[in-house]
Amino acid sequence: MKKLRFSVAGTGFVVCRLEPDAGVPEWAARGSFFSLTRTQEELSIACAAEQVPAGVKSSGRFALLQLHGPFAFSETGVVSSFVAPLAQAGVPVFVVSTFDTDHVLVPEESLEAALAALKQAGHEREG
């Protein structure tokens, strides 16, 4: 299993769901981390909870774990080596991949369990 370096990039994030034909709201594209993904079924937005207006369908609060890349597109097993220990520990994940690296959101109430599982798997927390 690949050993990775990561950091806790913050807490207080949510994942929101809007209708697939919704415009991208101004509040969604703010802050140090946000992700917008549109499919035929939905517009998903991951962002800081404090930005989300009342009435928008959203998840519970997440902590953001950032893997320390960059990782080449030809590199395999990066995400699976990181999330497998979390799955074994019963920690749900929401993964966001970017050009250089991957970000894994875990429920805030599961953060300590996630950190323990990752440490036991040999992943190295920085910061």
What key phrases describe this protein's structure?
127 residues; alpha+beta; VC0802-like; seven-stranded mixed sheet; 2 helices
Report on the structure:
Helix 1 (78-88) crosses helix 2. The chain has 2 helices and 7 strands, in the order E-E-E-E-H-E-E-H-E. The chain is an alpha+beta fold. Strand 2 and strand 3 form a beta hairpin. The protein has helices at residues 78-88, 111-120; strands spanning 5-18, 35-38, 43-48, 62-67, 94-97, 102-107, 124-125. Strands 1, 2, 3, 4, 5, 6 and 7 form a 7-stranded mixed beta sheet that branches. The chain has one domain (5-125): VC0802-like, CATH 3.30.2130.10. 17% of the residues lie in helices and 33% in strands.
Give the overall pLDDT as a whole number.
96
Number of domains: 1
Indicate the radius of gyration in whole angstroms: 15 Å
β-sheet strand percentage = 25-35%
Uncertain runs with pLDDT below 50, 5 residues or more?
A: none
CATH topology name: VC0802-like
Helix content: 10-25%
Specify the overall morphology.
globular
Annotated CATH architecture: 2-Layer Sandwich
Q: Please count the helical segments.
A: 2
SSE order, as H and E?
A: EEEEHEEHE
- What is the name of the CATH superfamily? VC0802-like
